[in-house]
Amino acid sequence: QVQLVESGGGLVQAGGSLRLSCAASGRGFSMYGMGWFRQAPGKEREFVAAISGAGRTTYYTDSVKGRFTISRDNAVNMVYLQMNSLKPEDTAVYYCAAVFARLGRTGGEYDYWGQGTQVTVSS
Questions:
Q1: What whole-number distance in Å separates Cα of residue 67 and Cα of residue 110?
Q2: Rg of the chain (C-alpha set)
Q3: Confidence band, pLDDT 50/70/90 cuts, at residue 6
Q4: Which of 51, 53, 54, 112 has the maximum number of C-beta atoms within 10 A of its C-beta?
């Protein structure tokens, strides 16, 4: 039983930065791999980034490499997505997801999802 709540979304100009947060409730947070996904209107859900339970392994989709950084703080059950050099194509609803004892790069591998937070990047 894991509950996830995203925050930090909003409107930002192209080239700007935004940090998303995901607060997890439940036991054993460090046992869960965490991922960020996004979905733009009319588009399929897209993998963005993932981080292993201890934070030793990270994955990123090619389009965000060098711009986004995923991190976690297991002491406070939080995962973050620092987004720099934002582009209009980054506009989407961003979702936090969790899966026990593994790390995935596809949505089907994750069992728990937050409600999403809107990120809008203006030109």
A1: 24
A2: 13
A3: very high
A4: 51
Asked whether the beta carbons of 82 and 69 are under 8 A apart, the reply is yes
- Parallel/antiparallel/unpaired status of strands 78-83 and 18-25: antiparallel
Reply yes or no on whether the pLDDT at 26 is more than 90.
no
For residues 35 and 44, give the distance between their C-alpha atoms in angstroms, rounded to a whole number: 16
Integer angstrom CA distances of residue 15 from 85, 108, 121, 122? 4, 32, 9, 9
For 94-123, the pLDDT digits (tens) are 999 999 999 999 999 999 999 999 999 999
Output the pLDDT for position 1: 76
Phi, psi angles (nearest 5°) of residue 98:
-135, 145
Percent of the chain whose predicted confidence (pLDDT) is above 70: 100
Region label for 75, one of left (φ > 0), alpha (ψ between -120 and 50) or beta (otherwise): alpha
Strands 117-122 and 10-13: parallel
Residue 105: DSSP 8-state: S
